[in-house]
Write a structure and sequence with these properties.
Elements lengths: L7 E5 L5 E5 L9 H9 L3 H38 L4 H44 L6 H19 L3 H11 L7 H15 L4 H9 L1 H6 L4 H15 L3 H12 L3 H12 L1 H4 L6 H4 L5 H18 L6 H10 L21 H7 L12 E2 L6 E2 L5 E3 L5 E3 H10 L3 E3 L6 E3 L4 E2 L4
């Protein structure tokens, strides 16, 4: 059951008689403010992604400025050391001035981009700070929409994700712009083009090197394979000398295997080399890019929606969930949830019976347990009877909490 509270346990003694014993008092349920604080700890990705994008833009702008300023200084030094006529000197300086003006425009554009990305970080911080006990229902609704947008973007439903973000006014809280950047590379790989992926590797070379990524090497191998497939052997050898040889010190075994395709060709029956020419290699590259992309921006490898669902399913999964007579109220009676829960372990179960504190009756599928807002659990029959006698109000016999019957939640016994 997905709730912990004081309860009574009906257990069987060795001689077959039964006894009802009071279980040890459970710790008091966590306060709502404590639950809120724990919930916010899961929002790492919400802040990490725009911050990483912001840092990347700053680094890119810094490199551009350094490159242009260095070129201008070199140009001034070269002009000073050369014996130029007056007209030549004027032309040279005019060219340098034009270059500086171009740099100014680039700097202004870069500054605006940095400002927009800083604003995204600020908006997300303010969103997290706005989470209060009084507005948790609305805040959680926004969180659900964010997770749905994240899921759609990862599943390549870009247009639907954009429409949901716009209709919910959460554009500042989702990473559409980041996933659209990835979309260009994924689309190119699906068309068997490595150019955009190699450009992405070049832009992020230092960070990929730090994480010991093999993605660029895999792209180079695939480009070599395509040359061999087209019987461009000499061009393939030249390509290998230029782009694959530098990887020899760390990936010699893989390099030797790929170089052997020059002898085996694309129509080989040898499985070790035949697999290198299969179309699925492009799908593997696309999947590998998605993993590298997520790691670069600090994203989870799985959609957030899957992670949250699996967290809940892990408490419900038992062998009974996979039997034909599994109750339809159990989420794991549905095939989609069963597939999602497949890698999860079974939840720890004790062979105990839940007895209602009020009626002393057994709580089961016919008389399911209900959870009050304070975390205590009582049977449906007891709370329904109490609500009828008190105009829909329920009073917790242990803590004195008064709430409406509509506020209770159903708990599942697994």
């Amino acid at each position: 059951m997905s709730s912990s509270s004081p309860m009574e346990v009906d257990s069987q003694l060795p001689n077959g008689s039964s006894v009802v014993a009071a279980a040890p008092a459970a710790p008091p349920p966590p306060s709502k403010s404590g639950k809120l604080a724990e919930s916010l700890k899961l929002e790492h990705q919400l802040l990490r992604v725009p911050f990483e994008h912001y840092k990347k833009t700053i680094r890119s702008n810094h490199r551009t400025i350094e490159k242009e300023v260095s070129a201008v200084i070199s140009g001034v030094s070269a002009a000073a050391d050369s014996e130029l006529t007056r007209d030549e000197a004027v032309d040279q300086l005019s060219s340098l001035v034009s270059r500086l003006q171009g740099l100014k425009r680039k700097s202004e554009d870069g500054s605006r981009t940095e400002h927009l990305q800083a604003q995204k970080c600020r908006a997300r911080l303010e969103h997290l700070e706005s989470a209060e006990l009084e507005n948790m229902s609305e805040w959680n609704n926004t969180r659900l929409k964010r997770m749905l947008v994240d899921y759609m973007l990862r599943m390549s439903y870009y247009d639907t994700a954009v429409k949901l973000a716009e209709s919910s006014n959460i554009q500042e809280l989702v990473d559409i712009y980041v996933f659209l950047e990835a979309k260009k590379v994924i689309d190119a790989l699906q068309k068997k083009k490595v150019g955009p992926a190699l450009a992405w590797c070049s832009d992020n070379k230092s960070r990929l090197k730090k994480s010991k990524s093999k993605f660029e090497f895999q792209l180079r191998l695939q480009e070599f394979i395509e040359l061999v497939r087209d019987d461009e052997n000499m061009q393939a050898i030249t390509y290998a000398r230029k782009h694959l040889a530098p990887w020899g010190a760390t990936h010699m075994k893989e390099l030797q295997r790929v170089m052997a395709t020059l002898a085996f060709r694309s129509n080989t029956d040898c499985q070790s080399y035949k697999v290198l020419f299969e179309e699925k290699q492009w799908d593997i590259l696309a999947d590998q890019f998605k993993q590298e992309f997520c790691k670069l921006y600090g994203m989870t490898l799985q959609p957030l929606l899957n992670i949250y669902l699996q967290a809940g399913l892990s408490a419900l999964k038992t062998p009974f969930c996979y039997e034909d007579d599994c109750t339809k109220e159990d989420p794991l009676s549905q095939e989609a949830f069963r597939k999602l829960a497949q890698p999860l372990p079974y939840s720890k179960q004790h062979h105990s019976k839940l007895v209602c504190y009020i009626t002393k009756e057994l709580m089961d599928t016919e008389n399911p347990p209900l959870v009050l807002p304070n975390g205590y659990v009582y049977s449906t029959k007891a709370l329904e009877e109490m609500a009828k006698q008190n105009n829909g109000e329920i009073t917790c016999p242990r803590t004195g909490l008064v709430c409406d019957y509509t506020e209770v939640l159903k708990a599942y016994i697994s």
